[in-house]
Amino acid sequence: MKECAVCGNKCVNEICSPKCCLVIWEKTKPKNKANARRVARMIGLRSIGEVKFAATLDEAGVLYTYEPDSFKYVPPPQKYTPDFRIKKRKRSGGYMYLEYKGNLKGSDRRKLLLVKAQHKDLDIRLVFEKPLNKINKQSNTTYAAWCEQHEFPWAEKELPKEWLKE
Fold first, then answer.
1. In which residue ranges of the chain is CATH 3.40.91.30 found?
2. E strands, 49-119, where?
3. Residues near 67 by Cβ (< 8 Å), separated by ≥ 6?
4. Is 5 exposed, middle or buried (0-12, 13-18, 19+ CB in 10 A)?
5. Which of 38, 95, 119, 153 is surrounded by the fewest CB atoms within 10 Å?
6. pLDDT (tens digit, 9 = 90+) per residue, 116-130?
7. What pTM did the predictor assign?
């Protein structure tokens, strides 16, 4: 066990929580994406966006697991690993899987559609930094509109409270 560089708590990583990671982020303000990813990796996440989202989950008291499950899909044989898994509260049980996205690339859209078609029981939801961004320069379709068209629940930056009641 190490001592967290920010709060002094004992933890496995150099930094103990998304909140402490954001303190370092604010102090250092990395100039490029590679340095931003380095700060996020201090707590095992991949981007500062994911760190900010994880911090909002922590503040709301939501228990989550980061990238615990992977699902195979074809073609070609590949696997999809959603960012966050949250246990549903209702009697139906199960989990909702949250994908935090800064950009929703074409490859991500294709992957999500294949996974949804091949794993009908999965509850996949997307959380965007900017849901009104266009899917590409030539399109008028926004990330939010794409989600609605393909029946993916979506939110902006934070987990909607109504999702927690499910």
1. 65-164
2. 65-66, 71-73, 78-80, 84-87, 95-101
3. 81, 82, 83, 84
4. middle
5. 38
6. 999 999 999 999 999
7. 0.90
Q: How many residues does the chain have?
A: 166
Using CA atoms, how far residue 20 sits from 54, 104, 110, in Å, is: 11, 28, 35
Q: Is 3.40.630.30 the CATH classification of the domain at 65-164?
A: no
What would the two tokens of residue 62 be? 């939501």
Residue labelled with tokens 């503040």: 59
> E strands, the chain, where?
2-3, 10-11, 65-66, 71-73, 78-80, 84-87, 95-101, 124-128, 154-156
20 or 144, greater pLDDT: 144
